[in-house]
Design brief:
The chain is mainly β and 588 residues long. Helix content is 11%, strand content 36%. Keywords: Membrane, Transmembrane, Transmembrane helix.
Length: 588
């Protein structure tokens, strides 16, 4: 962010914001240098005398995202080339009068070439940032067509996962590593029945999903149909794989960074039994009921070495959180009521009298000593999420105008911003940081600065915009869904309206609060926004529409109607791949 100026009343838009927020491309990447060394002179590879990581009293700061690494790599290469070129030029400067005249005459040409080179480098940096960003696609200018296809025996059960430069297709008891541009199968790993591989994107990109970094390595858990065998396979981007057996009764989930998370109930009363219900059907727990504690543990998936573990103590349970239903018959089922969700860098777990949230590095996000601190003791009206450029969002303890808890934003630089409402996290970005965060406060939308100097300062307020989802944050424009279901583009710097799409175009009429049940993702090339939309939200049809919206004016550039129901559409290294009724296809 470079400056704020007073709002121009003659500009477009219906709002009257007090300030203007402008921003530039990132010119420097914090923590990155030409030589790759730590700015404090510490060798990042030196983890200790014996090669093991030294314990830290506080959680280590989170590393740069893949967007920052891509930008750093590009700028380092450009800087080294410029320095070498400058040295070569200085060694060849003319010393004669004729030579100096010729040099002066050629300076204009050199300047033009330098400017042109600078534009090309800037375009390269933008493309690298875009491709590395969530939902970034190389080009959506024209209607994509099928470039390649791979048939699967059971495509609906398959999963697409992004690895560094690789599209991993998990299905048919194997994982295929595929070139996303050509569809060439680079390697195949046999993994076994029912592979659960992660971290994978959710179907749809709404809610608190957060950006999912490429899996490196990819972790897959498989279990036999009779439940007697369970194993984990770890696959590197080059197809090298290792497999080890697991306890068949272990409750585990694959995680990013080569991790495996387990959930184990210990102690307490775990015996399943019929639940007691009153005349209204409300369940009640037995008198003096004490349920088990929960041990959350993450280990290295390849070796089984523990990375961290924490015990979530049994607290004051809600009876409905301890009950499951089979054939409409309620049962007190502690193990069956346990559930978890891994999204972005966040693990959330909830069960009978236990509830907690962690970062993948083991940092506890909720306060176990405070019953009012979500999600402790089963408060599930709010959730945690990851910011696109690092940091995370957690629910606070204060009620908002809408009744839900407020959000607290933990910025990558360590700062904290307490919001009055709920943060709106983008489904897709172009990899550029606008230096602000949007939040929903009752029936209005506000922007807060995330810059270190004035973090939390209110940048603008849109009193007539009740945003329920932030589909994209691209090129200074935010594309949101409002409560009535319209899709609206607003200026990120001022909050002024740019264009509006009628709810009927996306079949969102009256469904603004449940946009992720109609719109299943967002993808952009910086100029166009691609939205996969349910052809018939009413449920009578099962088809899908791919709508490409021009970010300049909101017009529909092109549309593709598909008979296949929505399963999964992903962008890998800027290339689109989609599961269909017969397998996987590449679109371009």
């Amino acid at each position: 962010m470079t400056e704020r100026t007073q709002h121009d009343d003659t500009g477009s838009g219906t709002h009257d914001p007090e300030t203007v927020h402008t921003f530039d491309l990132i010119d420097e990447v914090p923590g990155a240098s030409d030589g790759g060394a730590d700015p404090d002179g510490v060798d990042p590879a030196d983890d200790g005398a014996d090669g093991e990581a030294k314990p830290a009293e506080e959680p280590a700061p989170r590393g740069p995202s893949r967007v920052a690494l891509a930008l750093a790599g590009a700028r380092t290469a450009v800087g080294q080339t410029a320095r070498r070129g400058g040295a070569a030029v200085r060694r060849r400067l003319p010393t004669t009068r004729r030579g100096k005249v010729l040099l002066a005459g050629g300076t204009a040409v050199v300047v033009v070439l330098a400017v042109t080179a600078g534009v090309l480098v800037n375009a390269q940096l933008r493309e690298r940032a875009l491709v590395a960003a969530p939902g970034g696609v190389r080009s959506l200018e024209t209607k994509p067509t099928e470039q390649w296809s791979i048939d699967l025996d059971n495509p609906i059960a398959a999963t697409l996962i992004e690895m560094p430069g690789i599209l991993a297709i998990a299905g048919d008891e194997k994982v295929r590593g595929v070139d996303p541009a050509s569809g060439e199968v680079l390697w195949t790993v046999e993994v076994g029945e029912n592979p659960d591989c992660g971290s994978a994107t959710h179907i749809g990109s709404g809610g608190r999903g957060g950006a999912v970094e490429p899996a490196d390595p990819l972790v897959c858990v498989t279990a036999s149909g009779d439940g007697k065998e369970q194993a984990v396979t770890v696959i590197d981007p080059d197809g090298t794989a290792t497999t080890r057996e697991l306890d068949p009764a272990a409750v585990v989930a694959p995680a990013a960074g080569g991790g495996l998370v387990s959930f184990e109930l210990r102690g307490g009363d775990q015996e399943p039994r019929p639940a007691l219900v009153d005349k209204l059907g409300v369940p009640h727990l037995p008198k003096g009921f004490v349920g088990p504690d929960l041990v959350v543990r993450q280990e290295d998936a390849a070796t089984g070495t523990e990375r961290w573990s924490e015990t979530v103590a049994f607290g004051a349970p809600r009876p409905e959180g301890c009950v499951t239903y089979s054939d409409n018959a309620p049962a007190l089922d502690v193990a069956g009521s346990l559930g978890w969700d891994l999204h972005g860098d966040v693990i959330e777990v909830e069960g009978c009298g236990v509830s907690a949230a962690f970062l993948l590095d083991g940092t506890r996000l909720d306060d176990p000593e405070d019953p009012a601190d979500p999600p402790a003791y089963g408060v599930d009206s709010a959730s945690f999420g990851s910011l696109p450029d690092g940091g995370w969002v957690r629910p606070g303890t204060e009620p908002t105008e809408g009744g839900a808890p407020n959000d607290v934003v933990h910025l990558p630089d360590g700062g904290t911003v307490t919001l009055e409402g709920q943060a709106l996290l983008p489904w897709a970005t172009d990899g550029r940081d606008p230096g602000l965060l949007l939040e929903r406060v009752g029936v209005r939308t506000e922007a807060r600065s995330t810059d270190e100097g004035d973090a939390g300062a209110r940048v603008w307020t849109a009193p007539d915009l009740w945003a329920t989802a932030l589909l994209a944050q691209v090129s200074g424009t935010a594309v949101v869904v409002d409560d009535p279901g319209a899709v609206r583009a607003i200026d990120l710097g001022t909050g002024a309206d740019r264009w509006t799409i009628d709810p009927d175009v996306l079949s969102l009429g009256g469904m603004g609060r449940t946009a992720d049940s109609v719109v299943f993702g967002a993808y952009t090339d910086g100029d166009t926004l691609l939205l996969p939309v349910a052809a018939d939200p009413g449920g009578e049809g099962t088809g899908l529409r791919l709508l490409a919206i021009d970010l300049r004016d909101g017009s529909v550039r092109w549309e593709i109607e598909q008979d296949t129901p929505y399963t999964q559409l992903v962008a890998v290294d800027g290339y689109l791949a989609q599961i269909t009724q017969r397998g996987v296809v590449g679109l371009g």
